Amino acid sequence: MNRIIKNTLILTVITVISGLLLGVVYGITKEPIAAAQEKTKQDAYRAVLSDASEFVEYESFNADDASALLADSGYSSDAITEVAEGLDANGETVGYVISVQSSEAYDGSLSLSVGIAADGTVKGIEMLDISETAGLGMKADEAEFKDQFKDKQVELFSYTKSGEDGDDKIDAISGATITTNAVTNAVNSALVYFQNELGGVVNE
C-alpha cells in the first residue's frame, strides 16, 4: 500500500512540474507566435492593397451578419474572419482587405485575403493558409493563378476549363477544380461583402 501511495505521489509531482513547465514555455512563446502571425497578416495586407500606407480594423464588421449575408448570397461554405480598412498617408480610405475562410477546399479548408480598392477593383489575393495537394491544388498559391484576379472590376468571378475570355473568367487549375472553385468562391464572398456592406460601386 505504501508503495502505491509513494508511486502516486511521484506521478502527481511529475504531472504538476510538467504542467508548470508547459505553462512557462507557453508564456515565453505566446508573444513571438502572435507577433509572427500578425506580421504574416500585415504582409498579406500590403501584398493585396499596396496603395495603403496602414491598415486599421474595420470597426463595423460583425461576423454573424457577414455569415448571414454570405448564406443569403449562396456562399454558406465561406466565412469572413476579418476586415481591415486601408488608409493612405493622409488617412483617407483607399480600400479594404477582407479575409475569408473556405471549407470547400480539397484538403478541407483554406483562407485568403482579398484586397479591394474603393472603386470595387480587386487589387490582389494572398493565401493565409493553404495545404492542398502538391503540384495540383497548391498551384493556387502561385502568382500565375492568383494574378488572374488582380486589377479586375467585376461583380463576381467564375472559373472556366475551356479558356473562355472575360475579366470575370478564371482559368481552372488542371486537376484541381475543387481548389479552383474554393478560391473563386472565397474571392466572390469578399466581393459580396464589399458590395453590400462597404459601398461597392459595382452595385450602384
Q: Beta-strand percentage?
A: 15-25%
Q: Radius of gyration from the CA trace?
A: 22 Å
Q: What would the average pLDDT be, to the nearest integer?
A: 89
What count of structural domains?
1
**Gross geometry:** globular
Provide a count of the helices.
Answer: 4
| Elements, N to C (H/E) | HEHEEEEHEEH
Question: Tags for this entry?
Answer:
single chain, 204 residues, 4 helices, alpha+beta, 5-stranded antiparallel beta sheet
Layout: helices, strands, pairs:
Layout: H1 2-48, E1 54-57, H2 63-72, E2 78-87, E3 93-102, E4 110-117, E5 122-129, H3 143-146, E6 158-160, E7 169-171, H4 177-197
Parallel strand pairs: 6-7
Antiparallel strand pairs: 1-2, 2-3, 3-4, 4-5
Write up what this structure looks like:
This protein is α+β, with helices and mostly antiparallel strands and 204 residues long. The chain has one domain (52-203). Helix content is 40%, strand content 23%. It is built from 4 helices and 7 strands, in the order H-E-H-E-E-E-E-H-E-E-H. The protein has helices spanning 2-48, 63-72, 143-146, 177-197, and strands spanning 54-57, 78-87, 93-102, 110-117, 122-129, 158-160, 169-171. The strands form 2 sheets. A 5-stranded antiparallel beta sheet has the order 1-2-3-4-5, sandwiched between helices. Strands 6-7 form a two-stranded parallel sheet.
Give a quick precis of the structure.
The strands form two sheets. The protein has a five-stranded antiparallel sheet, sandwiched between helices. It has four helices and seven strands.
